Amino acid sequence: MNTPTPRLRISGLTVAFGGLTALDDVSFDVARGETFALIGPNGAGKTTVFNAVCGLVRRASGSIDIDGRPAPATPMALVGRGVSRTLQGLGLFDSMTVLENVLVPLGLGTAGGRSLGETDAILAATDQLAALGLAADAARPVASLPYPERKRVALARALVTQPQLLLLDEPAGGLGSDDITDLAAIVRGIAAAGCSVLVVEHHMDFVMSLADRIVVLDFGRVIASGTPAEVQADPRVEEAYLGVEPAA
Ligand SMILES: Nc1ncnc2c1ncn2[C@@H]1O[C@H](COP(=O)(O)OP(=O)(O)OP(=O)(O)O)[C@@H](O)[C@H]1O
């Protein structure tokens, strides 16, 4: 039987910054419609994986394929290949309204693989804001919104291009428990619609309740992988987070 082509395949990825090996021979696949988490202590290399997928850092070796074809070399070309990303910080344009922020990627490229005229772009952005409960905020300066709403604007901006692979960098960071519960429901809906989600997150309850599979990085290496239950039971993970030596 043929194995389906993964949405994202990372093979033997190594990235170095001068003398620091930030990623060392990292490999994993993300299937279509899968929610996949990358976890690990601070500095483990999680964001560098995202940056490598987006063509923002140079690979020393390894390959990155999206839907069976090499990832494009530039971030702009990624949108046309169905990839979107949120940033660890919000990365919003504070001088713009909510709607203008969500329109930015539509001005750069395509939605669902096709270019949109201005009217259709505004409709798509307005629909996306409505889907995330932000319809009433469209004309407000984004800087005037509370932090959880600004996080959702950043998510709307990533979703407006109708990605097939969504990279979420610490989406729960800075949110309270009610907002995290809402976010988990939103991410489940995104995955249920067939979009693969690769999430970097420190909030463990969120990760464990959401992810189909998890890879754990430490000092740039994969130290564990599997289902949430498998990863939680792995003594190497406890060691990486807590500095506890696994029992012999
Ligand atoms: N552009 C860069 N130049 C030099 N070193 C970098 C650069 N980007 C990342 N690093 C280093 O690479 C390592 C991995 O960083 P990265 O940001 O990927 O970790 P992370 O797992 O995302 O950490 P955190 O959870 O704190 O965000 C760290 O030691 C970091 O200091």
From TrEMBL:
Cellular-component GO terms for this entry: plasma membrane
Molecular function GO terms recorded? ATP binding; ATP hydrolysis activity
Stored SUPFAM superfamilies: P-loop containing nucleoside triphosphate hydrolases (SSF52540)
Q: InterPro entries recorded for this chain?
A: AAA+_ATPase, ABC_AA/LPS_Transport, ABC_transporter-like_ATP-bd, BCA_ABC_TP_C, P-loop_NTPase
Gene3D superfamilies from the UniProt entry: P-loop containing nucleotide triphosphate hydrolases (3.40.50.300)
**Coiled-coil intervals:** none
Which Pfam family is an annotated match for this chain, by its short name? ABC_tran
Keywords (alphabetical) are: ATP-binding, Nucleotide-binding, Transport
* Residues covered by the ABC transporter domain: 8-244
Q: What is this protein called?
A: ABC transporter ATP-binding protein
Natural source organism: Orlajensenia leifsoniae
